Amino acid sequence: MASVSHEPVRYGHERPQWAEFLRIPEMWASVAIVAMWLAVLFDAVYGPSIVSTNGAGTQATTVPSAIVVALFAFLGTISVAKHGFGRDQQ
Of 27, 28, 39, 60, whose Cβ has the fewest other Cβ atoms within 10 Å? Predict the structure, then answer.
């Protein structure tokens, strides 16, 4: 009668270690995008406005500075998402 010996029991971690989370590019892309849009939010709430007046000072145009910041956050979101979430098709 033959018997088969079992492999030794390996005790592994059931959850991944924190250092493994640092190597996930999708996580860092998400953090970067959230940080960009939080900057837009705080600029919209607490930031100044862009004020333009004509030469005589009789008319003034006011534009929230968050519009300019949101434009750059949009462009940054596209770039970060392309590089952070894009997969190489090989």
Answer: 60
CA 84: distance to chain centroid? 9
Contact 81, 37 (CB under 8 A): no
What is the residue range of 67's domain? 20-85
Smallest CA-to-CA distance from 65 within 75, 77, 54, 51 is with 51
Residue 33 has pLDDT above 90, yes or no: yes
Counted domains in the chain: 1
Residue 16 confidence (pLDDT): 65
Picking from 26, 24, 28, the residue whose alpha carbon sits closest to that of residue 36 is 28
Does residue 13 lie in a domain region?
no
